[in-house]
Design a protein that fits this description.
Blueprint (H helix, E strand, L loop, with lengths): L1 E2 L8 E2 L29
Length: 42
């Protein structure tokens, strides 16, 4: 949604997207962090 408050408009507009083409996929990436070097991250 886009809110144009700089121009004084408070109307919320949703984005108009085209219909999806092809299968819906979910992507993920694993990130390995060395625990001994970065113990505060876990």
């Amino acid at each position: 949604m886009y809110n144009d408050t700089l121009n004084g408009s408070t109307e919320k507009r949703s984005a108009e997207l085209p219909d999806a083409v092809g299968p819906i996929v979910q992507l993920q990436e694993k990130l390995y962090v060395p625990v001994k070097e970065y113990p505060d991250l876990l």
